Amino acid sequence: MKNSKTPSGKTIKEAVLSYEDFQDEVLIIEFDSSSINDLRKFTPLNPSRIDAYILIGITEGEAEVQIDYITYRADKNSIIFIMPTHIINFVSGSNDLRSWVLSVSASYMETIPYSKQQPAIISYMQLKKDPLTRFEADEYADICADIDLVRNKVCRRNHLFHKEAVNSALRLFFIDLGNFYLSKREHYILPTLSRKEELFTDFQNLLKEHCTKQHNVRFYADRLCITSQYLSSILKEQSGMSACQWIQAALITEAKGILKNPRTNVQQVADELNFPDQSTFGKFFKKHTGMSPLAYRKS
């Protein structure tokens, strides 16, 4: 799937408590429980794979978020950090939910000075096992103050050095966030993954790269130099899903993303996802979603 762009326009602005974006690369929104239904049509609040760093902060109430089909329950003063390539889905929120989302595209992150020197908070290996972190009230308040600073700089569109101001605010945000994350991890030691966890991570990377063309479990097992049966047993143990289920879920996610483009017909989707014909793709999609591709697009 091509990289998703930050959503924009009057509809989403009316759906949330506040909304600001910079060059379709940096997005800050605030929302509550009344906004959830309106937001479901927008990435990153719809099941999607997006090439961006996404943070969801819970100011009040509770929220459930799926990351690679594993559900995390976040409560007050919690932050969920979602890495590029993860499949994400905002599941539900409590009636008293108040939250914010910061999304920075992976390509834009590379333009922020010294961003590569902040591995504590943008390392998939470190956050893989636990993307949900609960902060002390004063720590969370400081993080929210930094979010407000980023929002302030984004809003100052007449600033002669607008991009530099936004980048400076983002850099300060990530530095402060990294400080809080590091304070909660003993001596900043990267977690040591077991062999099975390494294979699980390698499979996810292979699936992201090849799922649109390779639907067979054996392809991924061969690339990992293990048997198909062993691959499925590892995935089942690590995630509760077999290799076939992972491949099917990845294909559905890709299909939904492509179907968002009204200029793409169903045959083109079938071709892009390497199905033999439109009928086979349509049956596959309906089996796993309960509706035809056209019905999904209309919904």
Quick gist of this model?
By secondary structure, the chain is of the alpha+beta class. The protein is built from 14 helices and ten strands.
Q: Any descriptors?
A:
47% helix, disordered N terminus, four-stranded antiparallel β-sheet, six-stranded antiparallel β-sheet, 10 strands, 299 residues
Structure overview:
Helix content is 47%, strand content 19%. By secondary structure, the protein is α+β, with helices and mostly antiparallel strands. The chain has a six-stranded antiparallel sheet with strand order 1-2-9-4-7-10. The chain has a four-stranded antiparallel sheet with strand order 3-8-5-6. It is globular and about 55 Å long. Residues 1-11 and 115-122 have low confidence and may be disordered.
Point out poorly predicted stretches. Answer: 1-11, 115-122
Structural class: alpha+beta
Strands in their spatial order, largest beta sheet: 1-2-9-4-7-10
DSSP E strands, number: 10
Please compute the radius of gyration using only Cα atoms: 20 Å
How many helical elements? 14
Question: In what range is the share of β-strand residues?
Answer: 15-25%
Distance between the termini: 20 Å
Main sheet specs: 6 strands, antiparallel
| Oligomer designation | single chain
The level of helicity is 40-55%
Strand and helix order:
HEEHEEEEEEEHHHEHHHHHHHHH
Shape: globular
Give the mean pLDDT: 81
